[in-house]
Amino acid sequence: MADVLLRGGRVIDSNGERRADVLVAGSKVQAVAEGLSAPTGALVLDVGGCIVSPGLVDLHCHLREPGQEESECVETGTRSAALGGYTAVVAMPNTDPPVDSGSMVRDLAELGRSSLVEMAVAGAITVGRNGSRLAPMAEMASLGVKIFTDDGAGVQDSALMRNAMEYAAGIGVTIAEHAEDASLAAGGQMHEGSWSSRLGLPGSAAVAEEVMVARDLALARLTGARLHLMHLSTAGSIALVRQARMDGIQVTAEVTPHHLSLTDGALASYDPNLKMSPPLRSAEDVNAVRAGVAQSVVDAIATDHAPHPLEAKEVPFADAANGVIGLETALAVALTVLVSGSGPFIADVASGEDACVEGASAALGAPPDGAVGASGLLGIQELLALMSWKPARIACLDHSQGGPVVPGSQANICVVDLDAAWVVDPDRFASRSRNTPFRGWKLFGKVLHTICNGEPVVLDGEPQR
To answer: For this structure, is 304 an active site residue?
Structure first.
């Protein structure tokens, strides 16, 4: 690999912000200083006016391989990740067959050897993800698995979940939960509220999530296990996590860009690309989730990248599969709605019903024009923490990912042009699937370059392999 010199950028990492050139040699950062000279044969990239950051880390990504390659595969999913600025992803175990044994971990890890970015493997909590018998967690942990989840379904049996947490605490791994009580959520097509009544769609109440969050927090307190709560979406869930932190429970939490930027009112379009689990929630919930992000109750923004083929979405809403893709839009959506404060829905909860109606009309079109860097909920360093070094720590990838851009560090870097405005066109995505809720949206912030282990895998917004 040729050396790479990133010239004139604004380096932002957990150490703060500074103007500096960054020289990458081999798989490491060799020098960080102003006025660096380019070695002979080096690739010199002018990144003046851009952010140079540790690569993003996605805690929650469905790559669909093996068994569902019509939706995605490791190659296309990790290419999509690289285009979105990610240098590492955690692949969920709800493949076909599921990742519920050491042999499956080995098989998926072998597939990951050719991926464009680092791919960590999450293991299933239960055999077959059927919620009845614990999977061989110690065997999978011995192969490097750090996170265990039955994502796509919550573990419904409380005694079994207690056993899983006790086991996880003993071997030093994290239990990640899709928090949803299946009996309370049964039949729900969207969030239960005023919009489900208007649209005539069966609702799934917020309490279906909150009951499971409360149970798992109680079990984490009892067992001392590390608990990670996935794609939280309700005000009640955020309040429960806030209190758990005060009580000393080992819990981390993630939210998604779509739950930060859309309300249930958007479903007035009956667009199946807005159908997901957990569902889009009310204006009050969106504001509470955003407040949780701003107040550090939430630890990470994760994509929950869930690709589906066209035939799974181009059907009546009730028959459509749950899930949306997000690797190529996550950073820009977060920048647009959290950093610039110019996103499609900034509700005033005091206005009650009016906020819901406003949220619906705004969400159906492109976000209004705005400039990144305007007043918003977060600063750019705070957002990068949520998408880089904090998730790296949760995934136990912080030995190679999310670290400060300093000499000797692993060269996992993304370069972002904050001023670049672009319109989401899923037909141009690297993903095999097109099920984005953001088609046609004008977003701010474009990934120009992604360097993974010293290799430029994206240059000028184009994948290099």
So the answer is: yes
